[in-house]
Write a structure and sequence with these properties.
- The protein is α/β, with parallel strands linked by helices.
- It is built from 17 helices and 22 strands.
- The strands form 4 sheets. It has a 9-stranded mixed β-sheet, with helices on both faces. A 6-stranded mixed β-sheet has the order 17-18-22-19-20-21, with helices on both faces. Strands 2-7-6-5-4 form a 5-stranded mixed β-sheet.
- β5, α2 and β6 form a beta-alpha-beta unit.
- α3 runs parallel beside α5, α4 crosses α11 and α14 crosses α15.
- The C terminus is likely disordered.
Length: 468
């Protein structure tokens, strides 16, 4: 964080200082909410959660080097006491962002937010120091913590914004007002909570409503609900996509033999070829979104294309590919799942597995409400249409819908199987995988299917040790 004294912080957040001998002492380290992340000079934000209360760690964090605790009650060590820690954290983030003077880029969408945010960050940091959301910390706590990690030399701040209801993004943009706002798509993620795609579009569009007149709204030309958001902003509109009307577009899109996308990138300033390190055609749209942001910030087509071609995945369990010594390929995409990302992952599996036996190890897609049965059934059917060799549906009723869709589409019989849990899937795969197989593992985060991918990777490592 930019250096601020405890007295300044107390004034910004409207708090009272307790047990602070010298209010001029500065916070020079990161603001954190996890006691394990404290470093000398840190400010520790004490949140009271369901499993643990951060206030209980006050003594420990000060011993570890924290300058003070941002707390809702006195804790016997240097503290700034406020009525609500989350509100105070947001106020501090807003103050720091205003002082910083960096260009804020905010993005939202139903699918692809984290992958696109990682691409934008890798492109922009070639131009100037860039801070970006780690993983998917895109809510009312994660976003201000990211903003507070910026330092005096930060020039670009790339912030992922999530929403579970109307007003959420409006609140986040109030904390960190963006100059560039990117909306990727409007899909089915959280449709059970929102009630429909139109409501999702209403919530996502709050981002472009928050933009200043001298800002830019970067919108997906291929998604009608996103494109319509142009009417909701006074900012400049930049369109990206494969549409001929897009300002930043892709031509000659294809997949390499390994399943990596390749295309000709066109921007208003020129064109250049891109071959990505990431897997799956869905990353073309993500790359175009990143390119549109980078173009708006003054980067050339050649600079953008080079950066996109060299960019990798910065976040775990998102199309994370491991090649085992025995030739089995494990694709761990188990961080989360919705119908759009599930379809994209299956298409990537089909492309990567040309001429090889493919396995789709799939679980529940959460928060789909009344659409859950139809969406799971559709994913099972798509697996058949893509000629995936084996479907392993893991879990309860939703998994049975996946298997039923596959069975009804292609009468697979033994090619699809429903197992009760992750361990059952691990046991099955360990006994049946053959050299050269490609395995995709994907489900909503709550299912915990990353354990399947990890176990399969560890199995290969154990085998290597035994062979020695």
């Amino acid at each position: 964080m930019i250096a601020l004294s405890l007295a300044e912080i107390a004034e910004v957040v409207g708090g009272q200082t307790h047990d602070i001998p010298d209010p001029s002492v500065e916070v020079t380290g990161p603001v954190v909410r996890d006691s394990r992340e404290v470093r000398p000079g840190s400010l520790f934000a004490a949140f009271a959660g369901e499993r643990a209360d951060g206030h209980d760690y006050a003594q420990d964090v000060v011993r570890a080097g924290a300058v003070a605790v941002l707390a809702s009650r006195p804790v016997g060590v240097p503290a700034i006491v406020v009525e609500d820690v989350q509100t105070a954290l947001g106020a501090l983030a807003r103050h720091v962002v205003q002082r910083l003077g960096a260009t804020l880029v905010a993005l939202t969408g139903s699918a692809g937010k984290t992958s696109t945010k990682d691409l934008i960050a890798q492109v922009l940091r070639r131009k100037a120091p860039t801070v970006f959301t780690p993983g998917s910390l895109n809510n009312e706590i994660g976003l201000p913590l990211t903003a507070l990690s910026a330092t005096e030399d930060t020039r670009f701040l790339v912030l992922e914004m999530g929403a579970r209801g109307i007003g959420h993004i409006r609140y986040l943009t109030g904390l960190t007002p963006p100059r560039i706002g990117l909306v990727l798509n409007v899909g089915s993620a959280h449709i059970g909570e929102f009630g429909g795609r139109e409501q999702i579009a209403q919530a996502k569009g709050e981002l472009v409503e928050a933009l200043p007149e001298d800002g830019a709204a970067v919108l997906n030309a291929d998604d009608p609900l996103v494109r319509a958001m142009a009417a909701r902003t006074k900012a400049k509109v930049v369109l990206f996509g494969e549409s001929a009307e897009a300002d930043v577009r892709a031509e000659n899109v294809r997949l390499t033999d390994s399943g990596r996308p390749s295309f000709r990138l066109h921007t208003p300033s020129g064109a250049a070829d891109v071959t990505m390190r990431l897997y799956g055609e869905h990353h073309v749209s993500n790359a175009l979104a990143a390119a549109a942001v980078a173009h708006e910030l003054g980067m050339s087509a050649e600079e953008i294309a080079t950066a996109l071609s060299e960019a990798g995945s910065l976040s775990r369990w998102r199309m994370e590919v491991t090649e085992r010594p025995d030739g089995v390929t494990i694709v761990n995409d188990a961080y989360n799942a919705n119908p759009e990302s599930m379809r994209a992952a299956l298409r990537a599996l089909a492309a990567m597995g040309r001429g090889r036996r493919t396995w789709a190890v799939l679980g529940k897609m959460a928060e789909l409400g009344d659409e859950a049965l139809a969406e799971h059934d559709a994913v099972g059917r798509l697996a058949v249409r893509l000629n995936v060799s084996k479907l392993v549906a893991v879990g309860g009723i939703e998994a049975s819908w996946l298997q039923l869709g596959a069975y009804n589409e292609g009468s697979w019989g033994e090619e699809s199987v429903h197992v009760s849990d992750a361990q059952a899937a691990i046991d099955l795969l360990r006994s049946e995988l053959r050299p050269g197989d490609v395995v995709l593992v994907k489900a909503s985060r709550s299912v915990g299917l990353e354990s399947v991918a990890q176990a399969l990777v560890e199995t290969a490592a154990e085998g290597e040790v035994a062979a020695r």
